[in-house]
Amino acid sequence: MTAARTPPVPHGNTAANAAILRPYQREAVSRVVTHFRTTSEPAVVVLPTGSGKSLVIAELARLARGRVLVLAHVRELVEQNHAKYQAYGLTADIFSAGLKRKEAGRQVVFGSVQSVVRSPERFRDANFTLLVIDECHRVSPDENASYRQVIDHLRVQNPALKILGLTATPYRLGQGFIYHRHYHGMVRGDDACFFCDCVFEQPLRLMVKQGYLAAPERRDMAVERYDFAALAPTDSGYFSDDALNRVVAANRATPGIVADIIEQAQTRQGVMVFAATVAHAEEVLGYLPANEAALITGATEADERAERIGAFKAREIKYLVNVAVLTTGFDAPHVDVIAILRPTESASLYQQIIGRGLRLSPGKDDCLILDYAGNPWDVYAPEVGEPRPASDSEPVQVICPECEHANLFWGKYDGELLIEHYGRRCHGLVEDAGKQRQCSFRFRFKVCDGCGAENDIAARHCNGCNTLLVDADDKLKDALKLKDARVLRVSGMQLEATPNGRGLPRLKVTYHDEDGATLAEWFALETAAQRRAFDAVFLRRHLRAPGIPWQPATPAEVVAGRERLRSPDFVVGRQIGRHFKVHEKLFDYAGRYRRAADAG
């Protein structure tokens, strides 16, 4: 699919092939072709599980003039994508050790990334023009990872290689979004993402509304649940088997949970059970009807695995228990119950699991989601992009006051009032001299002492003057050396509407440290100019939900809205005459000094 050749010459019966595509599939294909006519930057298409990614891949492979390599991480996906292409009446090769085929001579090749990366000599002179990666959220940022090795090898032969990724969940645990820009005009991941643009996305809610997928019906289970609340993920972001087993092993809740699954599924066709560990899955299997259930783990032999999956798809058995092996690449449309007996580390994994039950099938109206692990995710809620900062935070919409882009951040509501969010910079894309750039508005920031520019709270160099930003620890260290400075480790912030020495109404803000020391600052809000100054020097830094319109006109209004405000981690005061005046406030501190909030 080269930029110089337009339009592409199709193979086979164009009208018949186009007719089998749904409208959103045709739009996805069109947007991909348009993108690659002007650039070779890697692109992503986001389609929910069950939306027919294989058909989109087949159509793109059919339209391409040059050679096409389609990669996936499991043999089931390789086989599925190959079958859809063959259904066009076309032929293609398969390069997959798991499928016992290693052919790479035809124009289109469907392969497993594991087999391809181990056989670079078979692809030395292949000169592919288009690489398609299914489940592309598995492309690691690590340049030594398998997908990156294959990409580097193919780019040596063709530097203009077009790379397209398809996924239902375009994020990676610990990384966030896998692409930088979205065609709706917003930034998602950082500019170091391997994939540059999301060129098309079909929302899951719309798929269900239009009748292309079965509706997920999540039920709040009344039986006893597992309590995974105390679990903490490892450095890799995943829960360890040892930690999971401490919760589920011989747990008295298991028999009741399995009995409830059987009760809920009485009139249902197919049930998938997602267990926490192998030992847990074996215990769950023991409580299910022996002649109606099977278990699949990572250790299940290939032939035995195929036999059990075949029996489940043929409806010879009703229950299929698994441990983290059937979250992708598994297609059994009759599944209408998903039982989740494990914590999911991310919205991505949760959505992948539920996606197993959303395909349409005769006699199937919806899919029951039975969650016995208290997972906080909503199947319709998109990933925010950053790790959830607190267990009680949820996705919230924040309008940028500069470009009016509707940002999606983690945040918290108090009733209908958004009182806190954790966004740092607007994700909107704005036009600048004919090009798109990210909106410069920052909700949270640190100011360069040299030029006054606002920078990300984690930045080391100023984006305005490129000088090295003074480290927060260095500021505290220097202040502690001064005789005329006072450093407070803030343990509390008090707001008062009180008259000053001349009887004029003022807002007094007092910062307290653990040892009883205090520093205070005073603000007047009587005139419009005073209120603008208050907004600039106080509100922008102290608001828990910066960017949300709030313009208090009196000290009493500020005090009444104290729940909207946050205190700094440290305050530095400098002595002016007989009094100390607030000189600097440090927010979002992450240095070596202990904060008051971290006291044991």
Concise description?
By secondary structure, this protein is of the alpha/beta class. The chain is 25% helix and 26% strand.
Topology:
Layout: H1 14-19, H2 23-38, E1 43-46, H3 53-63, E2 67-72, H4 75-86, E3 93-96, E4 101-102, E5 108-112, H5 113-117, E6 128-134, H6 146-157, E7 162-167, E8 171-172, E9 176-177, E10 179-182, E11 186-187, E12 195-201, H7 204-209, E13 215-219, H8 241-248, H9 254-264, E14 270-274, H10 278-287, E15 293-296, H11 302-313, E16 319-322, E17 335-340, H12 347-355, E18 366-371, E19 394-399, E20 406-414, E21 417-421, E22 429-432, E23 435-438, E24 446-447, E25 454-455, H13 472-481, E26 485-499, E27 505-513, E28 518-523, H14 528-542, H15 555-560, E29 570-576, E30 579-586
Parallel strand pairs: 1-7, 1-12, 2-5, 2-6, 3-5, 6-7, 10-12, 13-18, 14-16, 14-17, 15-16, 17-18
Antiparallel strand pairs: 3-4, 8-9, 10-11, 19-20, 20-21, 22-23, 24-25, 26-27, 26-29, 27-28, 29-30
Helix pairs in contact: 2-3, 3-4
Structural category:
alpha/beta
Q: How would the global form be characterised?
A: globular
Number of structural domains: 4
Average pLDDT for all residues: 89
Arrangement of strands in the largest sheet? 4-3-5-2-6-7-1-12-10-11
CATH superfamily of the largest domain: P-loop containing nucleotide triphosphate hydrolases
- Radius of gyration, whole Å: 29 Å
CATH architecture of the largest domain: 3-Layer(aba) Sandwich
Number of strands: 30
Q: Return residue spans where pLDDT drops below 50 for at least 5 consecutive residues.
A: 1-16
Q: What percent of the residues sit in helical stretches (DSSP H or I)?
A: 10-25%
**Subunit arrangement of the protein:** single chain
Please give the largest β-sheet: 10 strands, mixed
- Terminus-to-terminus distance: 61 Å
Instruction: Output the CATH topology of the largest domain.
Output: Rossmann fold
Strand fraction band? 25-35%
Helical region count?
Answer: 15
